[in-house]
Write a structure and sequence with these properties.
By secondary structure, this protein is an all-beta fold. It has no helices and 57 strands.
């Protein structure tokens, strides 16, 4: 049997297979009706971010800060990411641009303070949800560290202006609302600050400074093992980092120190209890569960990783932040959940770190779900209950290895299909909007379920790859609880859609290899299938939609010399025979079609018409009000690289999902969701 040679799967679709040469501008099939215009409903820009510091305001709530260079060649912009579920999902929060970068953050109670470049701090009194700019004494030009040993007593240190060493310390007695100068001299750079008690704190640069009254600072005669960075999780226990001694430990509240592990010099440390602590030296994690008496080292292996900040809101839950290369793109925000007791770590998801949105389904005008992948290739499912004003990340089953499509017959009844970690086809169902999921019984001969279509909450059909490399159509009469499979003629190596106009009449489309389109139909409920007549030259068919019992439409493309042009394959006899309608404009590829009446449909894909000099390709959308006989190009917002899925409600509201683009030129990353009208 030949191995199936499928194009990229649902989340990228045929659109992301590669950029194509300029398409010929063919006019046939163009309608004259005034087109509707699409607008951006939600944008998930690429997570290009250096996440430098993290602090937690509760056991499950944390704030991380840093900066993004996604605006290059313009100046970097400060960023804040916030979680309220222990790192399950990090979401961006708008911060004032008083500082171009944020390098440090600390929270004590509801008050959080962050600083970086600039003689200002940003301050929040509501757990990092909203921020305002707080001015600092003019002597400080850059904030390098902040410490708040109590809810009211805070210190910030940094550098003054100019190229020569200039250390500055400022203090606050009202939780960071106002600040006064405490130390300023011209021979010391300061970059580390920690407090053993409410009034005893230490600052380090080219020497060690100390205060014992919380207001006056002076030189401190420290021993060889004295830490430049430390944390005291109890009155007596402290752990620290010493440039000469590595990890050091104190059992008398920081009065004396001894070496604990000389092999690692952490640049960040945090403790979730008197016994449990986590640190990093930028590349490795160090963990202790015995108050620092012994340490274990764990080494994540994310490409080009740099670990910068640590926070531990509980004994067995720590957050480590930084950046790494992910999905071949550098400088991605890296958020790790670290469990000291098991010495384990897992990457966490950032809600604006969604690389591609690939399958869209809208069971009502207000409820839509979108299948997507994050920066590390993990499947995810977004849902809006409010027409896109807010989105939540629905947890998917742990055994789902690949998510090919999500579809909802009602706002509560949804299916997610793909393949599980055991290599078998998967069809997971929920009847409560993703609160819980149950596995459908898929035949063991199925290796992957790649497309699904539901006529109701109970009747569904799907296309699949069999484990013998051929294809099949699955059917379910009980909402996906169980499925039966029927193999199709061996002329198809790929199936990319199935629709049933009645309980007995169905159409399936796909391809043979990467260059030949095929279609099939059944009139007996799938017991037997016969091959349809498809025009020569059509490439694989996908995005199948049947707005009526006789009319069916599928997305495809044809070669015109060296270029490729998008076309609509159209049938008026229930899928038995097909004709070709050329898409208007420079549409090079089409990937999905959705119809909201017997005559009105939307198709989306990608065009070779340049957005601008930086982005020579763009997403494409075309529409018909003549059941596919003629099509009109529609207006797409700028900075959309490709659209891979579309879903329309019966009232004409449509949602399209795909991938945005941004400088540098035509870099396809960052999920985008558009709406119509």
């Amino acid at each position: 049997m030949p191995a199936h040679s499928r194009p990229p799967r649902a989340l990228a679709g045929a659109l992301v297979a590669g950029l194509l040469a300029s398409a010929a501008l063919l006019a046939c099939g163009v309608a004259s009706a005034a087109p509707r215009a699409w607008s951006v409903l939600a944008s998930f820009p690429p997570p290009i971010a250096y996440v430098a510091s993290v602090s937690c305001f509760s056991v499950s709530g944390c704030v991380a800060v840093g900066w993004s260079s996604a605006t290059y060649p313009l100046a970097p912009v400060p960023i804040e990411l916030r979680t309220i579920d222990g790192g399950g999902l990090w979401s961006p929060v708008a911060v004032p641009k008083g500082a171009t970068t944020l390098a440090t953050v600390t929270c004590n109670g509801a008050v959080c303070l962050a600083g970086g470049d600039g003689s200002v701090l940003v301050r929040s009194t509501d757990d990092g949800l909203t921020w305002n700019v707080v001015a600092l004494p003019s002597a400080i030009a850059t904030v390098t560290a902040i410490a708040c040993p109590t809810t009211t007593s805070c210190f910030a240190e940094g550098r003054g202006s100019g190229a020569s060493p200039n250390g500055v310390i400022v203090g606050s007695s009202d939780g960071g609302a106002t600040w006064s100068l405490q130390f300023d001299e011209t021979t010391t750079d300061l970059h580390s600050l920690w407090c053993a008690t409410a009034t005893t704190c230490f600052a380090y640069g080219t020497s060690i400074l100390a205060t014992t009254d919380g207001s006056t600072w002076g030189a401190y005669a420290a021993g060889a093992s004295f830490p430049t960075l430390a944390v005291c999780p109890s009155i007596t226990v402290c752990v620290g980092s010493s440039p000469s001694a590595g990890i050091v430990r104190s059992s008398d509240g920081g009065a004396t120190w001894s070496m604990s592990d000389g092999a690692v010099v952490p640049t960040a440390l945090a403790c979730g209890s008197a016994t449990s602590c986590v640190g990093t030296d930028g590349a490795n994690l160090v963990l202790t569960t015995d108050s620092g008496a012994s340490w274990s080292e764990v080494s994540p292996t994310y490409p080009s990783q740099r670990l910068l900040g640590v926070a531990c809101p509980s004994a067995d839950g720590c957050q480590v932040v930084g950046y790494a290369t992910a999905d071949a793109y550098p400088d991605r925000a890296l958020m790790l959940d670290v469990v000291p007791s098991t010495q384990s770590f897992t990457p966490e998801r950032v809600s604006n770190a969604i690389d591609a949105a690939g399958s869209a389904s809208c069971p009502s005008p207000s409820v839509c779900v979108v299948g997507a992948v994050d920066a590390y290739g993990n499947s995810m499912l977004l849902r809006t209950p409010s027409a896109g004003t807010s989105w939540v990340d629905l947890g998917l089953p742990a055994t789902l290895a690949q998510e090919d499509q999500a579809v909802c017959a009602t706002p509560s009844d949804c299916l997610v299909i793909g393949s599980d970690t055991d290599g078998q086809g998967a069809a997971w169902r929920t009847t409560n909007a993703g609160v819980t999921w149950s596995a459908g019984a898929v035949p063991v001969s199925v290796g992957e379920v790649n497309r699904v279509w539901c006529a109701s909450a109970t009747r569904c059909w799907a296309t699949a790859y069999l484990t013998n490399s051929w294809t099949a159509v699955l059917s379910s009469a009980n909402g996906g609880r169980s499925w039966t499979a029927k193999a199709l003629p061996h002329t198809a190596t790929d199936l990319f859609g199935v629709v049933c106009a009645t309980r007995t009449d169905c159409v399936a489309v796909g391809g043979r290899g990467a260059s030949v389109g095929v279609a099939f139909l059944t009139t007996n409920g799938g017991r037997t299938w016969r091959t349809s007549r498809v025009p020569a030259g059509l490439r694989p068919l996908s995005g199948l939609a049947c707005p009526s019992a006789k009319v069916c439409l599928a997305a495809s493309s044809v070669r015109r010399g060296a270029a490729t042009h998008g076309v609509i394959a159209r049938s008026t006899d229930g899928g038995a025979t097909w004709t070709t309608v050329v898409a208007p404009g420079a549409t090079a590829l089409l990937d999905a079609i959705s119809c909201w009446s017997a005559s009105a449909c939307e198709a989306v894909g990608q065009t070779t018409a340049a957005q601008d000099t930086l982005n020579p390709t763009a997403a494409s959308a075309i529409a018909t009000t003549t059941a596919g006989r003629t099509w009109t190009a529609q207006s797409i917002p700028k900075d959309q690289w490709a659209l891979t899925s579309v879903s329309c409600t019966r009232s004409g509201e449509c949602l399209a999902a795909g991938i945005g683009s941004y400088a540098p030129p035509n870099l396809p990353t960052g999920a985008t969701i558009l709406r119509l009208p």
